Structure formats: C-alpha cells, structure tokens
Amino acid sequence: MNSYVERVKKTLQKRDPDQPEFHQAVDEVLMTIVPAIEAHPEFEEHGILERVTEPERVVQFRVPWLDDQGKVQVNRGFRVQFNSAIGPYKGGLRFHPSVNLSVIKFLGFEQIFKNSLTGLPMGGGKGGSDFDPKGKSDFEVMKFTQSFMTELNRHIGPNTDVPAGDIGVGGREIGFLYGQYKRIKNEFTGVLTGKGLEYGGSLVRPEATGYGLVYFVREMLATKNESFKGKTVAISGSGNVAQYATKKVNELGGKVVTLSDSNGYIYDPDGVDEEKWEFVMDLKNNRRGRIKEYADKFGVEYHADKRPWEKKVDIALPSATQNEVDKNDALKLVEHGVLAVGEGANMPSTPEAIDVYLKNGILFAPAKAANAGGVATSGLEMSQNSLRLSWTFEEVDQKLDAIMKNIHKEAVTAAEKYGSPGNYMVGANIAGFLKVARAMVAQGVV
Ligand code: NDP
Ligand code: 2IT
User: What is the position in ligand 2's atom list of the atom closest to the CA of 194?
Assistant: First the structure.
C-alpha cells in the first residue's frame, strides 16, 4: 500500500467518519491511481491528494416552502463545489429523501474525474435536497424548486457553477429552476443545462446519458468482437438513463428484458419494444406511476422488492442508484454467464461486486466513463449557449458518439500504460485524474 494514499485516507476517515458513500468513492479512486501517484512524485509535493479530496466549498441551506394545504415544510439544500481546476463547477442536482452531505460529496467527487474524461472544460460539483418529489403536485414541486433557487442563485452562474438534473430532477424541475434564476438575476444565461429546447436547451441532452452508456459498452464489446445484436440486457431503473439506454439497445438489435423502480422489477422475455417503451415514457414522465403497471398492462412477471440481477442476461446496465448491485447480485450475474456490466448510475456496484466482475473477467464499464455522455452533452449545451446558436440532432449525437469513443480509448490506453490492461476502472480513474492533477500543479497551491 502506498504510504501517501494511506495517510490521506486516514485523515479523511478521521475528519468525516459519518460519510460512508464519500469514503467509498474516494477509496476506489485512490486505490486505483497508485501507479500514477508513484510515477509523479511532484503530486505529493504539491499536496494534490489532500486538496482533491477536500471540496473547495460546501453550501448547505434551509429550503422552506408551503405545501398545498398551506402548511410550512422545510427541506435541506446542498451544493458542493468540489474542484474548479479545469473549468466552472459542473454537475447535477438530486432531489431524493436519501440525499445528505455524504451522498452529495461522493457524487461531486466522482464528477471531477468524469468531467475531466469528457475532454471538455468542466470542473466538478453536485447538489440537491432531501425533498421527495413522489406524491407532490406540480404546484408543490414548483414552490419547492423556487425556494431552493432563491438561495442557490447566489452561488452559481454560467462561468462559476452550472447545475443540471439527476435523480428526481428532470425537464420539469429544470424549467422551474431556470425561471426563478432568471427572475432573480434578470439575466438570460446558460446557468443550467438540461433546459427545454424553447429556452436554450440542446437536442440530445435528454437522450445523452443512456445513449452514451450504450455507445461506450458497444466500444467495449467490440474489443472482444462482440456487439449488442441478439443480446439480452437487464436494465435497472426506469427513469431518464434507463429509458434512453433501452431505446438505444433496441436500435442496436439487443433486447431489454428488465426495468425497475424502487418498488420492484418487471421481466419481459419478449423485450421492451417500441410500443412498450412509449408506454414506459408516458407512465414515468407524465403519469408518474409505478413500473408494476407495465406488468399489469402487458401480462409479464413482476417481482416486488427485488432487483433484476437474478435473471439470466448477457449484459447488465445498472441505471438506478448507488450500491444497487452487491456481491451476491454480481455472483448471480456471473453464474448466468454475463458478458459485460456497464454502469449508467453513479457507483451502482459495491466494491465487492466490482471484485467479482474483475476476478471473473467480465467486461466492466465504470460509471465515470460509461455515464459521462450526459455531462458531456451538458458541456455541448454550454458551448451552444455561449455561441448563441443550436446544433442539429445529428451534429450533437455525432459529437456525443465521438466523445464516448475517445473516453473508451483513453481508458484503454491509461490502463495499459499503468500496468492493468483491460481494467477500465483503473484506466478511467487515472486518465481523469491526471488532467486535473496537472492543472492543479500548474495553478499553484490554491
Ligand atoms: P430518474 O429520477 O429519472 O430515475 C431514477 C430511477 O431509479 C427511477 O426508476 C427510480 O425509481 C430509481 N431509483 C432511484 N433511487 C432508487 C433507490 N434508492 N432504490 C431503487 N431504485 C431507485 O434519475 P436518472 O435516470 O437521471 O438517474 C439514474 C442514475 O443515473 C443516478 O445514479 C444518477 O446519478 C445517474 N446519472 C444520471 C445522469 C443524467 O443525466 N440524468 C447522468 C449520469 C448519471 P423510483 O421512481 O421508484 O424512485
Ligand atoms: O451524474 C451526472 O453526470 C449527471 N447527473 C449529469 C450532470 C450534468 O451536469 O449534466
């Protein structure tokens, strides 16, 4: 074990013993970048690891709002501005009852290296709230988001920090957030991404994370002369990432046999075809119902309180939330002969699950690389906002595809160079880290 890494890990544990998700994310990065740290002794001299693991700024605030009964509700808001070495802070907002500082710090930390991998000038940040959008009226969601932005606006800006969506924050929420920002600042600027097309959004941003995930896995499969054609695919979640991953898998000739939400999963051996996909889009984005309705409507299996990984599939794309694939799930996937796992969600696999993939020679696409298409296309939205023009769907999609191919290449090259050929986790972490570390060295101790 490298003594510098060990020392930094110990200090962090002592400082924030109550942040398990954050330590999990940091441990994965620190353990895998050791060869790069050893090849660059100047990083220790410049205190890069001490600095890169400490957010530049953490903002926590009260979000008071009135529900439809006129009762006062109070939620907690966060924005963690983690690292601005290579660009303005950039990263999503998550609205989910499980949100706390540990969760936002893990997401913000991962975002630094993911954004670096895209090749675009974006630093790392993340924010959100423990607000639960489930069961709230549109009006309540609007009142909450307006209150949230009433505080957040002073901390963000198109050249400072550019938030976007994540779990529980989609087109509806970004619209309300943008309206409130504009009203407070009297400025029409690209301060958020994931905006509607009518007010500065980019084509392909809604599709980008799911499409990018499938593009990345396609590249990874190609190294083994494999493809999506004729493969069965398990997807978890049924939100933004899962929806567009499903669409792209279908386009590439694969068959998506599972989708899920926090209540359970459906198993459809015939595949989620175009007609069923349209049903899911309406169910989740308009009616905001439960995935069980899919099973009722199309007469397929529904498994309450279970995860899809117990089914035999060729490819698994966890696209719901952190730690949703544990060691036993991974062992089941391996037992059933899974070929590849691609992470649509952030940190969906536990460290023990990742060990199982790697020991069994499963092609493993880690989140920072595999789901970077979303933020990459956010970067393209920022470019279009600055240029004050809009690119066509084909233009943006081609750029997204090229970025995912490039991330794949960078990960492969770094993994080989630093002694772990074929290990995309090592390759992505090192490639993402090196650019940030060099920029930090160049900018002095700040
Ligand atoms: P959505 O809110 O659109 O969908 C989230 C989906 O995951 C829902 O089906 C939800 O079910 C399920 N889910 C959420 N939390 C849990 C939980 N604790 N247990 C089980 N299921 C859960 O979010 P996205 O699709 O945007 O995000 C999904 C994942 O992808 C997240 O990890 C996010 O960080 C990551 N990601 C998203 C990007 C984006 O551009 N949107 C970019 C890169 C990564 P339910 O409705 O029951 O809560
Ligand atoms: O995790 C992520 O990369 C996102 N939720 C997207 C962030 C963004 O700024 O588009």
Answer: 10
Instruction: Quote the pLDDT of residue 436.
Output: 99
The CA 201 to ligand 2 mean position distance, Å, reads 15
Handedness of CA 413, 416, 421, 423 (dihedral sign): negative
Reduced to 3 states (helix: H, G, I; strand: E, B; else coil), residue 164 is strand
CA distance 84 to 48: 13
- From the options 3.40.50.1460, 1.25.40.10, 3.40.50.10860, 3.40.50.2300, give the CATH code of 3-188: 3.40.50.10860
Using the predicted structure, report yes or no on whether residue 68 has a pLDDT greater than 90.
Answer: yes
Testing ligand 2's pocket by substitution, the residue of 371, 383, 403, 407 carrying the most ligand atoms inside 8 A of its CB is 371
Q: Compute the Cα dihedral for 94, 95, 97, 100 and give only its sign.
A: positive
90 is catalytic: no
Atom number, ligand 2, closest to the C-alpha of residue 166: 5
CATH number of 208-365: 3.40.50.720
What are the respective helix, strand and coil percentages of the chain, to the nearest 5? 50, 15, 35
pLDDT in tens, 217-276: 999 999 999 999 999 999 999 999 999 999 999 999 999 999 999 999 999 999 999 999
Quote the tokens at residue 62.
Answer: 């009260």
Closest atom of ligand 1 to CA, residue 170 = 3
Average pLDDT over residues 35-50: 98
CB 1: neighbour CB atoms within 10 A? 8
Note the pTM of the prediction, 2 decimals.
0.99
Q: Hey, where are the domains in the chain?
A: 3-188, 208-365
Taking only the tens place, the pLDDT of each residue in 284-334 is 999 999 999 999 999 999 999 999 999 999 999 999 999 999 999 999 999
Rounded distance between C-alpha atoms, residue 307 and residue 305, angstroms = 7
Select which of 9, 114, 126, 195 is catalytic. Answer: 126
